[in-house]
């Protein structure tokens, strides 16, 4: 924990007061001739051309905006808390997504700002797990939602629990921000494009020593999907939307897209969820496709369970190809906020863009970046439909990936393109640059993973797993590296690209947002949410 800047400022003010009091006790001081202060130097004046520069003008405007930002330290000032997690959305991903988003709008790209980059506060987060230098999503999500770092692979149990140890996990559960919000009568929501039983969303409601126990667990422990349906805090989660139907359906049941359930205990958890809320008063709605989503009547819906895919939902770029149709992350975010806002006590919600991570693992920067852009769209929806006076919005990532932005591409070069460099006059050199091996290279590459492949216009990055590893340099002269089916080169051959261990960014707006500036442990995020949201009675 770093020292609190406000207590430092308070201590300094206190010291001055003490000094003034002791002066009063020592009687009037003899008059001494006061030395005249030297006139302050007038300083340099800037050339007119410098002051007229748009960079200079933009900087002055930014100072004016920053001075107007309201800092609210009051405990409980955030009636609503929304935590956005871009799974695997490291700093290089944010930079590349920003450039892509700008270029999709016909701009050069580098100067573009994603929605959350306009928030007044940002900082850095240290992501390591207690037993792993480069983190996994289970340990990191647990840190964010419980305030306690833990091991990789475990969900909302502490670091004393060995991965997979059922008995130990029952002894060391951690209470989550979502449970605290429920216990205070607030509404709660969990939205993800991944399976809703996947590590990041599951951290909010389940406690297991093994993230893989999504639909089955050893004797004595309860699987993740069942824990969601049976969550005891408050009246359970109010809004759930994502993928992962298979964890809720028995093996004998086939869903509307023709996929079988995974449960071996024969329990239909969709029916169990519906019957939990059959009290004649509560209107609990289960939906599983875009038509169902579009038909939601917000006013009459008290509980919502939306499971739009057997496993993970589609990549955003591939969403149009879904069999039954599914909503986008920004559409789900908008609907969730509408539903949760009906509660006067406020709400807590986690929104995860779960497939940025999966795009990277498959060495598809196209999929990762287009999902990151859609995540920024979802954040914009949240910023537009809430007030900075009573809603804390936090945007961060659980961990990074080993994607790099490299070479010296000229300004405005397509971020997914081959590198075109500048000549000695600083102007674009005609044609693509060639590496020492005589072949072109892309701006984006991966340090490890499955490596290069090209599946034409397919936007399903998971195609990559159908072919073997092909690490190292490839001749991509004839490849359209900006097309959806292009997978970048990788240096170290691995069965999947890995997470990256460097810090991730955090951006925030609303009460308590300023507390997230600086470099902090990932577990600190919970403490800001708990303080600003008044989730813990101190
Ligand atoms: Zn991952």
TrEMBL record:
The keyword Transmembrane does not apply. Mg(2+) binds at residues 87, 198, 200, 352. Zn(2+) binds at residues 87, 357, 361, 398-399, 499. PROSITE patterns: PROKAR_LIPOPROTEIN. Residues 1-22 form the signal peptide. Its cofactor is Zn(2+); Mg(2+). Belongs to the alkaline phosphatase family. This is Alkaline phosphatase. It comes from Microbulbifer hydrolyticus.
